[in-house]
Amino acid sequence: MAGEPQDDCLFCKIVAGQIPATVVRETETTLAFRDINPQAPTHVLVIPRVHYPDIASLGTAEPAVAADVLRESGEVAAEEKLESYRVVFNTGSGAGQTVWHAHAHVLGGRGLEWPPG
Fold it and tell me: Where is the motif Histidine triad motif annotated in this sequence (predicted)?
């Protein structure tokens, strides 16, 4: 069921404490941790504690939690002292999504080219 933890979801297991992660921030609704395969000097994932497969489904079902993910992305950037940074939501395999749990990538610490990818 949407919003409920999924047994086969890596990020649900991290939220539950079953898989370790380097946590940098946590709130009642979100968890932020360092990406294990960083694409920039700072690469932190911000996830909702509830399970939705992508940001669009999270935003539709629980817009306040989607807003929390965005707010926490900014807090991560501030704590990491990033003057410039990018927040990315990959949606679908063609866009590079590999974990089907909504999440934001906070990237910074180097120049980021445009367009990406």
Answer: 101-105
DSSP state of 13: H
Q: Identify the active-site residue in 43, 51, 101, 103.
A: 103
> Which are the contacts of 65, defined by CB distance < 8 A and separation ≥ 6?
29, 30, 48, 50, 58
Cα dihedral 88, 92, 93, 99, rounded to 10, equals 70
Q: Is residue 33 part of a domain?
A: yes
Query: What are the CA-CA distances from residue 106 to residues 4, 6, 39, 86 (Å)?
Result: 25, 24, 10, 6
Q: Which domain CATH number covers 45?
A: 3.30.428.10
Question: In the annotation, is 103 catalytic?
Answer: yes
Report the number of distinct structural domains present in the chain.
Answer: 1
What's the pLDDT tens digit per position in 29-66?
Answer: 999 999 999 999 999 999 999 999 999 999 999 999 99
Is the full-model pTM beyond 0.85?
Answer: yes
At position 112, the amino acid (one-letter code) is L
